[in-house]
Amino acid sequence: MTQRSGILAAGNMLVDHVHCIDQWPQPGWLVEIVSSEKATGGAPLNVLLTLAKMQTGLPLAAAGLLGEDSDGDYICRNLDDFHVDRTAVRRSALAGTSMSLVMTQKSGQRTFFHAPGANRLLDLDAFETLQTTHRIFHLGYLLLLDRLDSPDPAFGTRSARLLAQMQQRGYRTSLDLVSRQGDPRFQTRVLPALRWLDYLVINELEAGEFTGLALRDAGGCLDAGKLTGAAHQLHRLGVRRRVVIHAPEGAYGLDKSGEGLWLPSWPLAARDIVGSVGAGDAFCAGVLYASHESWSLAETLELAHACARFNLLCANAIDGARPLTEVKAFIERARSGDIPGAGSGGERGLRPDDVR
């Protein structure tokens, strides 16, 4: 039997046109753009290019649909530059490459204006003959893949059918969602997929929308009991190996053994945050690499937090990524207390002892 290794990521591929501004203007008023840049975006590209820049040595591959335009060319060049296999990346003349206009404020707060483009057309036919030797298949983002989000008579959704097929082909499967507050489709479009998942890595907003639990109290603090309850609920609904819910304060992970762990984020002063575009995907890249390598839950969350922390130091989704050796060195320094504040319980009231 062929030894599986590496990560195949599929789904939303787009170009982020990132503009940094001092503050969001009032309606009818003007604000100057301080700086602008272009970068690849979307779950598959953010995860893959973060891992490539980390120099993990894992085989990496992408699958998705691009337009026949300059943004599509730009994505292909980036994949080639980082030695990511794009054999399964198709081009279409029926729609342009997906793009997002991202407005980032000094605080790191970001606002997206999104044009779905070719991602809306990505469907099961793109995966019919897809069979690689990668170990993990990562799909993102549900609720932004119109064809795959559509109903399926046997599996509930076409995305659930896809994940089932990929599991049956020998992959461990992983899923990411998009943060869409109040979207009534969280239950109908995501629930069917959970029984075909090995890994689920989402933020507290998505976890709250999906489970129906208010994970923050009226004062804005994470509710420890409900956070734990959300992870266990997602596990009971089908996720086989690992559920991770992350927030600015930290993350809670739950393994198939029943082991649960809260770990606060590594500290970072607000003045040092350049942007938060792709921070969740950088966190996910850390979880997937550590899970691929069978790291403990604590080691996994440490790495994921470090990946997210480095991401926050740059405006786009991948420029903050650092080689794995540098990330590990940072973690060792933080553990030993060489980085001020490391090991604190996070912000806004939640302490490590509050969650087990």
- Give the distance, in angstroms, between the N- and C-terminal Cα atoms: 39 Å
> Strand order, biggest sheet?
5-4-1-8-11-12-13-14-15
Question: Total domains, how many?
Answer: 1
Gross CATH architecture: 3-Layer(aba) Sandwich
The fraction of residues assigned to DSSP E strands is 25-35%
Task: Name the CATH class.
Answer: Alpha Beta
What is the CATH superfamily? Ribokinase
User: Structural class of the secondary elements?
Assistant: alpha/beta
Question: For this entry, what is the oligomeric state of its chains?
Answer: single chain
CATH topology: UDP-N-acetylmuramoyl-L-alanine:D-glutamate ligase
Query: Mean pLDDT, as a whole number?
Result: 89
Number of strand elements: 15
Q: What Rg is obtained from the alpha carbons, in whole angstroms?
A: 19 Å
How would a textbook summarize the main sheet?
9 strands, mixed
H-E string: EEEHEHEEEEHEEHEHEHHEEEHHH
- The percentage helix is 25-40%
Overall 3D form: globular
Number of helices: 10
Task: Detail the poorly predicted runs.
Answer: 342-356
